[in-house]
Amino acid sequence: MRALRARSGGGLVKETDRQVSAAAADLAAVIERAAGDLSLEEEPSNFVVALERGAGEDR
Amino acid sequence: VTDVTIATLGEALAARRLSVVEAVEEHLGRIRKVDAHLRAFITVDAEGALATARALQAELDAGRRRGPLHGIPLAFKDLCHVRGLPTSCGTSTAEYFAADPECTAVARLRAAGAVTLGKLNMTELALGPFGDNAHHGDVQNPWKAGHVSGGSSSGSGAAVAAGLACGALGSDTGGSIRLPAACCGIVGLKPTYGRVSRAGAMALSWSLDHLGPMTRTVADAALLFDAIAGHDPRDATTSARPVPSTAAALGRGVAGLRVGLPDNYFFDGVTAEIADGVRAAAAVLERLGARLVPVQLPDPRVMVDVSNVIARSESTTIHARLVRDRPHELQPAVRARLEVGFRISAHDYLQALRLRARLTRAFVAEVFTEVDVLAAPVIPEPAPTLESVKAGTVDDVVRRMSRFSRLTRPFNAYGLPALAVPCGMSRAGLPLALQLVGRPFDERTVLAAGHAYEQAAGWHRQHPAL
Fold first, then answer.
1. Which helix (H) or strand (E) holds B402?
2. Phi, psi angle pair for B45, to nearest 5°
3. What is the rounded CA–CA span in Å between residue B428 and residue B2?
4. For a tag on chain B, would you pick the N or C end, based on fewer CB atoms within 10 A?
5. Which DSSP letter does residue B118 get?
């Protein structure tokens, strides 16, 4: 993730804003690339299913 | 009294070699003596602790013992709401968060007989891995002044290492139990996602938050975990699975256990001292009968990005009012991380959650057919200086934060149980740590492996000189 720079003056606020937007855009680009081939049946709650199914027998 | 384990103190109390009041007074005295320097506590509840101690001693005198935690002095990260005490969450607002009833994990420990000494310092809003806090003071590393305690459960790490409390609760969204445990030379367990209720604790990220124990030994962590784990109707994410006793399984050893040593990612960019310490710890496990297995893991870097999207979106949503209405109250790096969340779309957030499901399924299937636990570092370097982590621009600070938590963050996203155990000391006199990671809900194997290593290596017998 692209990080942000310190600033305090009003003239730098726009740059801060650009940095925040750029950090978000970088993350969005990663997600876009990685999610390209997600199955239609994939849904967020499958995470819990993955944990429960991956648990196996109590050891 | 302040250097002993929970198990030892519990036995002494049960045998009435010591009273609960004496045990609590010893801890309060130690807090008075060293915490002006350490800054581990935000709130010390001496009066409440002594009143509880007297009541618990009366129960013992009447022949009633609740169990191994009866009379044990504990303290809680200041994002757990404890009845009658303020919860700042490390912010400048004394009562930033409240819950009714109090935090489930705290309530379960109190029901088991624990005494609340007070509330522990933390990184502001739990957003940062070092433990610096402009409002409540930077928590000092008990082993070396001027070095970080690790965070965000900074006070929990320092208090337990320094003998100010027998154990503590921490929270872990990207490593915040394991990082301070590693920096302070104690044990920290991030349980499986869904194993321990987060009800009554401030949320940073609903999808990634975990509560767990921080103690001086693995056996003590097992005692606290057994008391707090299990379904809670107040937290819909908790699993209904039964929780077998981890304390009862500690002694089973590691004979035949397959311990995976990652070939990729986890040893990249770590100092030689850290890498050598972890490999030496793995060798100890091998001598105890485990089989070391080199493993190529599915690349965790994608999952780290996924977790960043989830964490930023959720933390900004949760704390939006503070960020929008009173941003000047926030430390610059905390504010900077929160502001990113306003720019992440609902589309990207949901795609990240869907990706997390797929990546977790693949990781569990690929890795845990080959091994039973993974062994990896917790921190990439021994605790750095407070001065160095705060130096430079906000950009520099945020980049350092990401780097310091890169070895713990993946396991929040995968939701897997992960244990930090001390595995040596650096040449500069700072703790090194081993991370053991297991199958979902298999805290028993993780804790048993950690206990076997700890007992063989003996690092838990060292205490900082304060």
1. helix B394-404
2. -105, 70
3. 25
4. C
5. E
Q: What percent of chain B clears pLDDT 90, i.e. is strictly above it?
A: 98
Backbone φ/ψ region at A2: left (φ over 0), alpha (ψ -120 to 50), beta: beta
DSSP code, position B152: S
Strand positions, DSSP E, B227-313: 258-262, 291-295
Question: Looking at this predicted complex, what is its ipTM?
Answer: 0.91
Separation between Cα atoms, residue B235 and residue B187, nearest integer Å: 26
A40 near B CB under 8 A: no
Inspect the interface and report whether the beta carbons of B355 and A38 lie closer than 8 Å: yes
Q: Which of B217, B182, B418, B375 is nearest to B283 (CA)?
A: B375
C-alpha of B427 from chain center: 25
Residue A37 confidence class, pLDDT cut points 50, 70, 90? very high
- The residue of chain A with its CA nearest to that of B367 is A54
Q: Give the distance between the most distant pair of CA atoms in chain A.
A: 60
DSSP for residue B80: B
Query: How far, in Å, CA of B377 to CA of B282, rounded?
Result: 11
If we measure between CA atoms, which residue out of B281, B247, B273, B238 comes closest to residue B420?
A: B281
CA B310 – CA B374 distance, rounded (Å): 25
Q: Is the backbone peptide bond immediately before B152 cis, with ω within 30 degrees of 0?
A: yes
- Answer whether A51 sits within 8 Å of B440, measured CB to CB: yes
Cis-peptide, bond into residue B422, ω within 30° of zero: no
Q: What is the Cα B262 distance to its own chain's centre? A: 23
Q: Does A13 touch chain B (CB under 8 A)?
A: no
CB contact under 8 A, B244 and A50: no
From B19, B77, B153, B307, the catalytic residue: B77
DSSP B201: B
Q: Sign of torsion, CA A36 A42 A47 A49?
A: negative
CA A50 from chain centre, in angstroms, equals: 20
Q: How far apart are CA B233 and CA B71, in angstroms?
A: 27
- What tens digit of pLDDT does each residue of A6-17 get? 434 454 456 677
Of B435, B432, B430, nearest in space to B450 by CA: B435
Per-residue confidence (pLDDT) for residue B1, from 0 to 100: 82
The label of the residue with tokens 């609590």 reads: B24
- C-beta neighbour count of B58 within 10 angstroms: 11
CA dihedral B438→B5→B231→B120, nearest 10 degrees, is -100
The pLDDT tens digits of the residues spanning B267-291 come to 999 999 999 999 999 999 999 999 9
